[in-house]
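This follows on from our talk about sequence and fold. Go ahead and set the record down below:
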Amino acid sequence: MDIFIDNKRHKVPKNIGFSGAMDEINRVLKKQDKILQNLYVNGKEIIENSILKGQNVKLIEVSTRSNRGVIMQSLGMLEENIDNYFDNLDEILNSESTMVEYEKLDEILIFVAWTYGILIALKENTAIDLIYDDYDDFIFEFKKAFEEANQALEAEDTVQLFDILDYDLGSLMSGIEDNIRVYYEQAEKEELRKDIIN
C-alpha cells in the first residue's frame, strides 16, 4: 500500500491494513500539527459517511491544512459575515411585530458561539495574546457577554437579551471587525514562519 500525505510518499509497514494506515496517517498529522482536509482511496475521494466495501486498498492520498490555515479561512468567513450579525439584530430590534423572531435570534447566537470558537482557536494556535496584552481580557468579556445572553434567553428576558446583543456583544463584534485584518495577518505571518523553518 502506498500512502501520500500532501504529495509526499510516506513509508508504512508492508502488511498494514486500511485501519492501521489511517492510524499512522493520524499520528503523522498530529505530529505535524495538521488537519486532514481530503482523503482519496485508490484515486476516489472519500467523503463523510462513505463506506469502503472490502476494496483492496493500494493507494491512500491525503491533503492537509494546518490549524492556522483553518483559522485564516475562518477569519475570512467571519470578515465576510460579521455585518450579518448587525443586520439581523437591527431587523429584530426594528421589527413592527411584537413577536420575537426566534429563528433570527438563533442565527445570531450561533454566530456568536462560532465567533467565540474562532477567538479561542486564534489564541491557542498563534501568539496573538502576546502581541495584544488585552486579548485574554477581550476573550473573557466576550465569553461573559455570550453566557449572559444565553442566561437572558433561558429566562425569557428579551429586554436584557437585546441589551446584551446590541451593546455588550455589539461593541465586542465591532472590536473584532476593526481588528480582523490584523488577526489574519498575524496568523498568516506565523504560518509563513513555520513553513520557512520546516
Q: What stands out?
A: The chain has a mean pLDDT of 87. The radius of gyration is 22 Å. The chain has two domains: 2-66, 69-197.
